[in-house]
Amino acid sequence: MIPSTKPPKHLKMRPPVAVAAERTEDLGPPKIEIRALNFYYGDVRSLHNITMSLADKSISAFIGPSGCGKSTLLRVLNRMYGLYPRQRAEGEVLIGGRDILGPNVDVAELRYRVGMVFQKPTPFPMSVFDNVAFGLRLGGGIRGAELKSRVESALRDAAIWDEVKDKLHADGRSLSGGQQQRLCIARAIAVKPEVLLLDEPTAALDPISTLRVEETLQALREKYCIVVVTHNLQQAARVSNVTGFMFMGELVEIGPSSRIFTSPQDRRTDDYITGRFG
Amino acid sequence: MNRRALRKAKNAAFLVLSLIATMTGLACLAAILWTLLSHGLAGMSWHLFTQMTPPPGGQGGLLNALYGSAVMTLLGILIGSPIGVLAGTYLAEYGRNSRLSTVIRFINDVLLSAPSIIIGLFVYEIVVVHMGHFSAIAGALALAILAIPVTLRTTEDMLNLVPVGMKDSSAALGAYPWRTTLSVLYPAARSGIVTGLLLAIARISGETAPLLFTALNNQFWSTHLNAPMANLPVVIFQFALSPYKDWQDLAWAGALIITVTILVLSISARVLLAMLQAGRGSGR
After folding, report:
1. A32-41 confidence digits (pLDDT tens)
2. Are B265 and B58 contacting, i.e. CB atoms less than 8 angstroms apart?
3. Is the Cβ of B226 closer than 8 Å to some Cβ of chain A?
4. Contact, B231 vs B44, CB < 8 A?
5. Which end of chain A is more exposed for a tag (fewer CB within 10 A), N or C?
């Protein structure tokens, strides 16, 4: 238990997380451009005509009730849906100016550029080091000292280096849940992706681990285009520059998080963030 | 009140019947083990492992039969298990929902419960008849065909137990399915697949019928795969039916050796599986 009056040292040292919402003005050019995106599970349309741009070096959060399509949207961005039968996307999605939905896209290469972290931590059955090195070894050409330094910097960026530097050869599955999730983040960023997707990355974690992961995301914002799907409204407000509200497969509203959470323009957004449904 | 008494009586009757059935099963098992032990232990000696099967009335052991069984079982597993493991991988990872998979699964289930004598007859017809003589390699082939369905089934089941998230995570890093299978799924399912191999070894090491038609038997020491080879099950079969006391003793000793070997394999398989599940539990 944490005494409420005196938080542990590692929690006090971090910068306040509220700064996120104020940095929306200086967002760079769009990294991801989505135009008229529709998505189908078999015959059922689950995304309706979505159009938007997401900036580089920022965190975009998507919120909305279960089944609203926010996870589906994420799975379009690295074409994860392609692993499952009878799912298809129509429309145009550009990442870094390159179309990703076309038939000639090398999906493995796309996924190398677009990293993803899942709701449940999924450490591979191998050592901590090998987990992080997994993606680097796929690409080939990176080994020896360079591999070591890339693994170390990924673990540092994911804010887990200090906790695992003495057990790099322990099985990844022996870490705690929160550590496993940060290990998965390290594994995803080790290959230096252009975009990092996170699908409810803290839903399976306790509050302390959640805080560590959020701090990790804050630190990563400087380098990546990050897209987070979350059920946790406070989390979206805390970490993201831009928030999009989705409802029944539609993108109802998207804008600077500070505005979405204080003066939403759509009635449905207002109802959702004030807890009237969902 | 009356009804209640009746229901109680029914319950008691059911319990007693279940107990009797359990005791019958256990008693049979105990009787088998006891018979094996009492007859087999008497014949146990170092000669078993150092001398060849003797002519009637002579002194000897089971060395050539033990060697033959080991060689043919090993060869059978070496030939059969890669086919079983790869086919199981196809069913679990590549063709999960395809019509071909449904057909393969059905045929595999048939093969799993096919009488082994039919497998022996099949190999006799396509190998032994064409070669013109019995041979160890034909025996190994028959055993391989028996090992395929066991390893196929366990491999598919064990791969299906690997959390989907793990597979998706590997794909999300840009790994092609073959890389995911080799580097992530096989290690994650390793103890399960090894369990399948152990069970397959246990299954084929005691088979008699397929070897009768294929490897037959050999009185003498032979390492030629192209010639008939001695093996424990067929030796037991012949010696146990013979009128000679020393042959019968050797048969009992051989039966005990096979039983203990299979027991050890089955127990190791169970321990491995338990370790797998414990690892899953603590891994969360």
Report:
1. 999 999 999 9
2. no
3. no
4. no
5. N
Quick check: B172 and A80 CB within 8 A? yes
**Joined tokens for residue B151:** 């390893």
Tokens 């299978």 locate to B181
**What is the value of ipTM here, to two decimals?**
0.82
Check residues B1 and A188 and name the one with the higher pLDDT: A188
How far is it, in rounded angstroms, from Cα B204 to Cα B207? Answer: 5
**Whether the predicted pLDDT of A15 surpasses 60:** no
Q: Are strands A225-229 and A195-199 parallel, antiparallel or unpaired?
A: parallel
Amino acid making up residue B172: A
Q: What does each C-alpha distance from A219 to A32, A155, A235, A236, B113 come to in angstroms? A: 21, 12, 15, 16, 59
Query: Closest-CA residue in chain B for A80?
Result: B172
Decide if pLDDT at A125 tops 60.
Answer: yes
User: Do the chains contact at A83 and B171, CB–CB below 8 Å?
Assistant: yes
pLDDT in tens, B183-197: 999 999 988 899 899
- Is residue B174 within 8 A of residue B102, CB to CB? The reply is no
Are the C-beta atoms of residues B159 and B177 closer than 8 Å to each other?
no
- Chain B residues closer than 8 Å to A184 by CB: 169
Rounded to whole angstroms, how far apart are CA atoms A138 and B179? 8
- How far from the centroid of its chain's Cα atoms is residue B238's Cα? 22
Task: Tell me the two tokens of residue B65.
Answer: 């039969």
Q: What is the pLDDT of residues A61-115, one digit of tens each?
A: 999 998 899 999 999 999 999 888 889 999 999 999 999 998 889 998 999 999 9
Comparing alpha-carbon positions, the chain A residue that sits nearest to B188 is A125
pLDDT digits (tens, 9 = 90+) for B250-271: 999 999 999 999 989 888 888 8
Q: pTM for this one?
A: 0.80
Secondary structure class of A114 (helix, strand, coil): strand
Place of tokens 């970490």: A239
Chain B interface test: which of A106, A111, A117, A180 (most B C-beta within 10 Å): A111
* DSSP, res B123: H
Judge whether residue B282 has pLDDT over 70. Answer: no
User: Which string of b and e fits A126-142 if b means at least 16 CB within 10 Å?
Assistant: bbbbbbbbbbbbbeeeb
- The token duo for B188 is 């994650």
Question: Considering just the CA atoms, what is the radius of gyration of chain B in Å?
Answer: 23
A47: CB partners within 8 A, 6+ apart? A37, A38, A39, A69, A72, A73, A76, A89, A249
- Please check the confidence at residue A29 and state whether its pLDDT lies above 80: no
Of A32, A112, A102, A109, nearest in space to A73 by CA: A32
